[in-house]
Amino acid sequence: MALFVAQEAICAYPISTIYDTCPRYLFYALLLASCATRWTGWLADVFLGTAATYAGTAAFQAFILIASRRGKPSVPAGLVSIPNIPSNTTLDATAAAAADLFPALVTDTDEVQVTPAALELDADAVLAIVVTGYLVFLPLQCWSRVLRQQNARYLLFSLWNALMLAGSVCALVYWPTLSRTPRQYMFCYPDFPPDGTEYNGGWVASFRRSDSWNESVWGVFENRSRWEELGDLCFYPCFNTSQILRQQTTMVAVAATGDDGGVHRHLFWGRVEDFKPYVYALVVLCVILNFVLLLVEFVPSRRSRIPSSRVWIVWKKRKQIWTGLKCDFRSALAGESTEGVTDEAKARTKKGLRGRIQRAVSIQSLKLWLRLAIDIFILICLIFSVVVSPFTVIAFVIWIEYYIHHDGPNQESPQQIGQWSPLLAIGLLLISAAILKLKYRMASVKEIDCEIADTKQLLNRLETMKNEREKGNEA
After folding, report:
1. Which parts pass through the membrane (predicted)?
2. Is residue 227 domain-shared with residue 354, that is, in the same domain?
3. 3-state secondary structure 136-195
4. Total domain count for the chain?
5. Burial call 313-344: b when 16+ CB within 10 Å, e when fewer
6. From CA 403, how far away is CA 400, in angstroms rounded?
7. How does the average pLDDT of the chain come out, rounded?
């Protein structure tokens, strides 16, 4: 009978309670509510402000994760000699029983490579939050009028968008490290199989003998009293690792089968990898669209037919835009601009095949085609941002949540305070905002008089600032 057996394992830090199912779904609901109440002021501020705060926390965690990423494992790797167990072994029982007790048993080899490491499953939740927050920026900046009413409000919203972009880049760069996590192993007595998920009870330094994992593993199982000091049924080298922002005791280990709620990364990751290029391409496309629409808004061109990246302005001037585009097309087709050209100049224009060819290849013709192409490109970007981007957000959320679903069971149920407390906080915030919205209806005459006096003083200051700026512009 073998002294001990090796079994493939998954070591991971579960998703933190702040990113668990209820807070994440609440975040999605807040973004949806922000889009649905975009024409209001105070409601949009409450919903979007809370969502931005939550997503900002995730973005900063993405910064920390990418900054703490190590090129090499913090704990040195090493080969461990193991008893060679044939694939048809019975382990003093039936073959079926052996497969049930050790479903990820390592067979037909006499050594394994031990590289202690653990999956950081917060990376999945952080990716879902920051990328969703960034994708929502496209439809919001095109549809919401409230965000455009004040420069300070729009600046704040743009800074949040930049934070989401930076967080998305860091999360996407860090995310592939999960697939490159080395394979982990657990070592057990054949007659004491593990019960299921094991929690890290804290690493005891005495179990690590010199720098050799081979000596450490054999030293535990050759001495029964040392094995009893473990506190676990199996020996987990990954329990000797640590992760920034995490308590070491929150790490869990489970046999790499996925039958008990754990993730079988070796099987599931292959299916996820097929969609990863689309996710990266989606973020890159949204970055391009954001840049184009912001460029149109902040650096308007006098020659462009598109007056703004705002949907209601484009819709209001749709006839004027359409007429202008048709005029540009005819001018480009003719090879010359018809704007500001007199009849006498038109009469002197060269006619015939030679004249048309010269006009078609002229610098003026190329400029006209380029102007028309840029306007059409801006319109396509605007249409995609308005129509397609909401469906893109929905598709991404469904995909990433399906992926997170395979990260294992939640740490807390919805009934526990860590899950429902954010929802209660939002409710209290809404009540407070509603009361402040009705403050004038509830105010006394004295309070109204004080408010009028303060408003007059503010009005005088604003008029003074306006006059000073007008004088500065004239100068």
Report:
1. 47-67, 154-175, 278-300, 376-400, 420-438
2. no
3. HHHHHHHHCCHHHCCHHHHHHHHHHHHHHHHHHHHHHHHHHHHCCCCCEEEEECCCCCCC
4. 2
5. ebeeeeeebeebbeebeebbeebbbeeeeeee
6. 5
7. 79
Averaged over 381-396, what is the pLDDT? 81
Give the burial class of 89: count Cβ atoms within 10 A of its Cβ; 0-12 exposed, 13-18 middle, 19 or more buried.
buried
pLDDT band at 243 (very low <50, low <70, confident <90, very high): confident
Taking Cα atoms as reference points, which of 188, 236, 195 lies closest to residue 100? 195
Phi, psi of 255 (to 5 degrees): -60, 140
Listed residues 381, 405, 429: the one ending a domain: 405
Shared domain for 225 and 320, answered yes or no, is no
Question: Pick from 434, 432, 389, 429: which is nearest to 48 by CA?
Answer: 429
| pLDDT higher at 48 or 61 | 61
Cα angle at 37 between 35 and 38, to 5 degrees?
65
Reading the block at residue 90, the tokens are 């019975």
Taking the CA atoms of the chain, what radius of gyration do you get in angstroms? Answer: 32
Residue 342 has a pLDDT of 47
Question: pTM of this prediction?
Answer: 0.78
- CA 348/CA 247 separation, integer angstroms: 83
Q: Do residues 132 and 397 touch, judged by C-beta distance below 8 A?
A: yes
266 plus 346 within the same structural domain: no
- Please indicate, yes or no, whether residues 283 and 262 belong to a single structural domain of this protein: no
pLDDT at 383 over 50: yes
For residues 10 and 322, what is the distance between their CA atoms, to the nearest angstrom?
A: 60
Residue 16 · residue 122 · CB < 8 Å: yes
